[in-house]
Design goal:
heterodimer; A: alpha/beta; Rossmann fold; two-stranded antiparallel sheet; 12 helices; B: 383 residues; eight-stranded mixed beta sheet; thiamine pyrophosphate binding (chain A); oxidoreductase activity, acting on the aldehyde or oxo group of donors, iron-sulfur protein as acceptor (chain A)
Chain lengths: 285, 383
Amino acid sequence: MSTPNIPMEKIIEKKPYFKYLRLNKMPTIWCPGCGIGQAFRATCMALDELGIPNDKVAMVSGIGCSSRTPGYFDGFTLHTTHGRAPTFATGLKLARPELTTIVFTGDGDALAIGGNHFIHAARRNIDLTVVLINNWIYGMTGGQVSPTTPTGSYATTTPYGNYEPQFDIAKLAIAAGATYVARGTAYHAMELKKLIMDGIKHKGFSLIEVLSPCTIVYGRKNRMSIEEMYFWFKENTIPVKAWEKLPEEKRAGKIPRGVLYHDDSRPEYTELYWNKVKELSGGEK
Amino acid sequence: MAKLELKYGNHACAEAAIIAGCRFYAGYPITPSSEIAEKMAELLPKYGGVFIQMEDEIAAMGATVGGSFAGLKSMTATSGPGFSLKQENLGYAFMVEAPCVVVNVQRGGPSTGLPTQPGQQEIMQSLWGTHGDKLIPVFYPGNVQEIMEETIRAFNWAERLRTPVVLLLDEVLGHMRETVDMEQFASDKVEIWDRKMPDVPPEEYLPYKPGEDDVPAIAPYGTPGYRGHATGLHHDYTGFPTTDPETCQELIDRLIRKVKNRQPELEKNEEYKLDDAEIAIVTFGTTARAAKTAVDLAREKGIKVGLLRVITIWPSPEETLNKLAKSVKAILVPELNMGQYVLEVERCAKGEAPVYRLNRANGKIIYPHEILAKIEEIAKGGK
């Protein structure tokens, strides 16, 4: 497919967040109905609303469908090794604190092979914004079980249903030391933009978990259509304030979304480090 | 005027890195390399650089590449088991052309092996460790003065070729104290190379378009206008993934060629009494120290022996080894492993001379008298 024959200025006039896209790399590799595009769009819109120019953004990813995002993002981008994105991002951010550094990752990438890096980046409270696409499955490798696959669901490696419990990503991040933790969905697109915006604004480790349908692999394995999957998010997620008011018995099966945790009191890692450097080196870096 | 200082091997490595311009270090503690990290933790903040102790070896290598992409000269140090863990991201660094220095202070292996005792068992892992085809320069100094020289040389080549460079030490070198002439490392005496910056305007900039020397100029991340993409996947000049067979082959050809073509410049050996030698010892690092004494002991007994101490062990000094094989009756390769570099010597000798081995992997060094005994055996025509 060739680039649409519309002048770039015209497109950006109507949709200013398009300036973050490498349009000549489109179309994306994502399947029809996939939620990654929504999360990517929300991220670009958030950056646009915050007025952060392309030259001030680094985007780092690991391996998986969602990790292909940086390829389409017109900034300083790194597509790294499986699960290791937070480590590359930590090095980059420490060396260039002025860059808004975003990690795009998936549930398998961040929580299985990359679990250790994920919790330690959170522990340090380094100013990374992690957009974690949680689609409950390994999509790129064809539908194997992931640490967030719901118990009982089917995957290519759980042909008799998943026996393992799910990771609660938000709880894990909060326990590890993340200072901004939010959950959105690919269905609630504008709300997602707001959550990512707040995450970028927050000085410290931010996690935005994005519940996102893997329509082709998870959907097919579990007999859900694209529409059913989006509808599922609409029906089964509840704004966190409303969720908190629900009696315990009505919470079963329902997922709170919104800002789940926000703490501005803890110091941010790169700032701590560079203050120490200034003290020891007697001046600039 | 010489300015002599007594230096600890691992500390010398750290100090030399600072001289070379290293301003980023990410590591994970492991014996016998930890003193490099400890020294860097002390020095880097004073020099306005970054030190971070990461959660594991894989993370340390990842952060090192991150620091490198940000434009800082970057380094990490480890030992056997840690080097194994780093292989994944070392391959990534090679593929995305992230200049960095990876120090491996070898101990006995495999597995956790002998943490506090020397080995030379990662010779082959340095070349073949990470999956896929690659060529990463490997330097192996033989004393503390040379640890400093080779550390600086490693940084220079890493930046010049935009590639990771491995610096191999062994426990003995890392933990020994020797006199170093610091005058040699005065700022007006040391040659420092920096990476090539793009000389085209941002709109013409392609982060993976190589120059005539096969090395692409890549601006540090954060340089306004010079945005770029890097991926461990096969990629084209824009850095974007591709599976086009021609582009993929061209990429790997170039990555290997850019190092291989510099072989004559990269080559560094020390010859000792080789002129009239009938038997040559080829070795490196700690073992070369014993070999040198063995040469003298053998000469006292009238056996004409010489030593080729290989300092750039990768890419191999193919022609030098081949010429050597043609000029001697036999070659002996002692190593603190079960026979690794000897395979390379055999390959390069191309049958011109028989190649003998002397191997050990029990954490003990090879002593001069043991090498001498082997030489006497070879001189008598035995094995």
